[in-house]
């Protein structure tokens, strides 16, 4: 009974304090930008914002599900071995396009000025260190891509049978048509026609 | 250029050079690549897809793309032109019968816009075989008289003995490095 108001007070105090803190932070960064004048801090802030956005995109649920769907749909053609099949190139290109489009569209939404050369100008002479750039680098590399597909196939499908079943099943669910029935009937017709 | 390409370029820790091995099937492309990598050259099987070998050479990281040369595969070559800095065209110097075919395919590459800036190294391979055409004879047959601004050179070699292979590679890497790495350190 006595403890309750105390707790309430604590929470209240905490909230007030947080708000003050936040406001102070806002003011600080606001003044920083205005004071700098020569645009150096503005540029640093913008770089931080862009890198932050890139990170957001990469860890976002929707990007992850797009990536996984791509793996699911394409991993079956991949096989261990040094020689690569020609189809890998096409798959890699589709994947790169997918990543590129996702990144560019999301960056454009946040930074209307965004173009690749805007990005280059912004980052020129700055080291592209850190997790975000490491991740982007591996997304752009063919060997990493191949490994990602092989790992996915091993993890999800073993010999790939489970994955292909899964795919047919989800397709059926999505369009709601009865493909297996259609296939069966066409199989049934063929011997008759011959 | 795309965003990912830009990031890949900036992030690359070592100075990278991309080389594309092309030429008719059985010319000895895979054998030469294996020789460069210090691998056993006694058995190669025809390349149906492509292989990428990474090799450290004079401070550069070489990414060598070896693609199949059969007639049916040649239309896929174009998928590998992007960002290729050096083109290594391999000729079986003993295969006089297909020299015309070889010439036609090479000339097709030379008019490719995406390869316009690429340095060209021609390997006159299989020089260890007696009766192999000399590089002078090959040059005459290939009719390479309209090369314009392109940096190019022909080097006699043998993928089996390794003779000439290193010399050719040194030249192509040096030429590319001077072109793309001289100014940006
Ligand atoms: N004698 C000789 N045989 C070679 C040489 N280079 C390749 N070969 C042989 O030519 C055949 C085709 O070689 P390969 O490297 O697979 O050709 P690719 O189709 O251009 O990759 C193989 O039997 C090789 O052993 C060479 O310099 N001398
Ligand atoms: Mg081969």
UniProtKB/TrEMBL annotation, chain A:
Compartments reported by the entry: Cytoplasm, Cytoskeleton, Cilium basal body; Cytoplasm, Cytoskeleton, Microtubule organizing center, Centrosome; Mitochondrion intermembrane space; Nucleus
Keyword Mitochondrion among UniProt keywords = yes
Q: Which GO terms describe its biological process?
A: maintenance of protein location in nucleus
Which Pfam families has this protein been placed in? ARL2_Bind_BART (PF11527)
Q: Which InterPro entries match?
A: ARL2BP (IPR038849), BART_dom (IPR023379), BART_sf (IPR042541)
Cite the entry's keywords alphabetically.
Cell projection, Cilium, Cytoplasm, Cytoskeleton, Mitochondrion, Nucleus
Q: Which residues form the BART domain?
A: 48-155
Question: What are the annotated GO cellular component locations?
Answer: mitochondrial intermembrane space; nucleus
What family is it from?
Answer: Belongs to the ARL2BP family.
| Listed name of the protein | ADP-ribosylation factor-like protein 2-binding protein
Q: Which organism is it from?
A: Chloropicon roscoffensis
Automatic annotation (TrEMBL), chain B:
Q: Spell out where the chain crosses the membrane.
A: none
Matches recorded under Pfam families: Arf
Q: Which CDD domains match?
A: Arl2 (cd04154)
Residues given in the record as GTP binding sites: 23-30, 69, 125-128
Its domain of life? Eukaryota
Q: Which SUPFAM superfamilies match?
A: P-loop containing nucleoside triphosphate hydrolases
Q: Where does Mg(2+) bind?
A: 30, 47
User: What's in the keyword line of the UniProt record?
Assistant: GTP-binding, Lipoprotein, Magnesium, Metal-binding, Myristate, Nucleotide-binding
Q: What are the recorded GO MF terms, alphabetically?
A: GTP binding; GTPase activity; metal ion binding
Q: Which PANTHER family match?
A: ADP-RIBOSYLATION FACTOR-LIKE PROTEIN 2-RELATED
Q: Which family does it belong to?
A: Belongs to the small GTPase superfamily. Arf family.
Name of the protein described by the UniProt record? ADP-ribosylation factor-like protein 2
Organism annotation: Chloropicon roscoffensis
């Amino acid at each position: 009974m006595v403890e309750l108001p105390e707790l309430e007070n604590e929470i209240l105090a905490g909230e007030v304090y947080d708000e003050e803190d936040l406001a102070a932070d806002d003011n600080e960064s606001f003044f920083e930008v205005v004071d700098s004048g020569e645009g150096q801090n503005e540029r640093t802030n913008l770089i931080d914002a862009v890198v932050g956005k890139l990170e957001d995109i990469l860890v976002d649920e929707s990007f992850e599900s797009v990536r996984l769907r791509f793996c699911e749909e394409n991993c079956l053609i991949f096989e261990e071995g040094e020689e690569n099949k020609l189809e890998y190139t096409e798959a890699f290109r589709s994947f790169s396009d997918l990543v590129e489009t996702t990144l560019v569209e999301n960056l454009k939404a946040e930074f209307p000025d965004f173009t690749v050369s805007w990005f280059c100008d912004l980052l020129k002479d700055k080291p592209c260190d850190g997790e975000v750039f490491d991740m982007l680098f591996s997304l752009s590399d063919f060997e990493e891509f191949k490994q990602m597909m092989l790992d996915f196939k091993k993890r999800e499908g073993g010999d790939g049978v489970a994955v292909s079943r899964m795919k047919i099943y989800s397709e059926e669910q999505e369009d709601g048509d009865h493909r297996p029935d259609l296939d069966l009937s066409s199989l049934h017709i063929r011997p008759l026609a011959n | 250029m795309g965003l990912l390409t830009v990031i890949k370029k900036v992030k690359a820790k070592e100075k990278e050079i991309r080389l594309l091995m092309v030429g008719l099937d059985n010319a000895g492309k895979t054998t030469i690549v294996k020789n460069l990598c210090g691998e056993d050259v006694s058995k190669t099987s025809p390349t149906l897809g492509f292989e990428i070998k990474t090799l450290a050479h004079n401070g550069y990281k070489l990414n060598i793309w070896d693609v199949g040369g059969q007639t049916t595969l040649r239309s896929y070559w174009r998928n590998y032109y992007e960002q290729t800095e050096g083109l290594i065209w391999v000729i079986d110097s003993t295969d006089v019968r297909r020299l015309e075919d070889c010439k036609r395919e090479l000339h097709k590459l030379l008019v490719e816009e995406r390869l316009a800036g690429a340095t060209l190294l021609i390997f006159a391979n299989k020089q260890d075989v007696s009766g192999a055409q000399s590089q002078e004879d090959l040059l005459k047959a290939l009719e390479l008289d309209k090369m314009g601004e392109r940096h190019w050179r022909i080097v006699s070699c043998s993928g089996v003995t390794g003779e000439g292979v290193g010399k050719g590679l040194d030249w192509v890497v040096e030429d590319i490095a001077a072109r793309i790495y001289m100014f940006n350190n």
